[in-house]
Amino acid sequence: MKLYIACDHAAIEMKNEIAQYLREKNHDVEDLGINIGEKIDYPVSAERVARKVAADPASRGILICGTGIGMSIAANKVHGVRAAAVSEVYSAKLTRIHNNSNVICFGARVIGIETAKMIVDAYLEAEFEDGGRHAARVELINKLEQQG
Question: Class of the 2-147 domain?
């Protein structure tokens, strides 16, 4: 599975550490920026990852800003993206299992690097429980998105 990762200037160090951590675990990671010394508005980074994930349904995205909230709001504006802002492992796992989220967002000012690693692991190890009540609810979300 392809992973796309990006951040804003509040989370460059965490983004770099998470990207390296995932590469060490043999994940295919594409870093969509930014790097030390650069600045960017979080909606620009969110769009970069969201558009890549929307174009490749087998992929997933990771967005990191100060809190994860702004990134999730912006990413969710891209058709086909279900982004969730999380700050702990349980929600990271359940957003994948129950909501079929394809982008996860968190904040470098909210959690530390070890928690971020645990969140990413839980999210990537979880699989959507296709069928039943969860699939029906995701379909309702898809209908809302189509209605605009």
Answer: alpha beta
Catalytic residue ranges? 65, 98
Angle between helices 113-125 and 12-24 (to 10 degrees): 50
Determine the Cα–Cα distance for residues 84 and 73; give it in Å rounded to an integer: 9
Secondary structure string (H, E, C) spanning 16-54: HHHHHHHHHCCCEEEECCCCCCCCCCHHHHHHHHHHHHH
Q: Is the pTM of this model over 0.85?
A: yes
- The candidate with the shortest Cα–Cα distance to 116, out of 104, 132, 98, is 104
**Residue-wise pLDDT tens digits, 13-65:** 999 999 999 999 999 999 999 999 999 999 999 999 999 999 999 999 999 99
How many beta carbons lie within 10 A of that of residue 3, not counting itself?
22
Instruction: Please tell me the predicted confidence (pLDDT) of residue 148.
Output: 77
Question: Residues with Cβ < 8 Å from 12, sequence gap 6 or more?
Answer: 34, 35, 36, 38
Domain ranges of the chain: 2-147
Strands 60-65 and 103-107: parallel
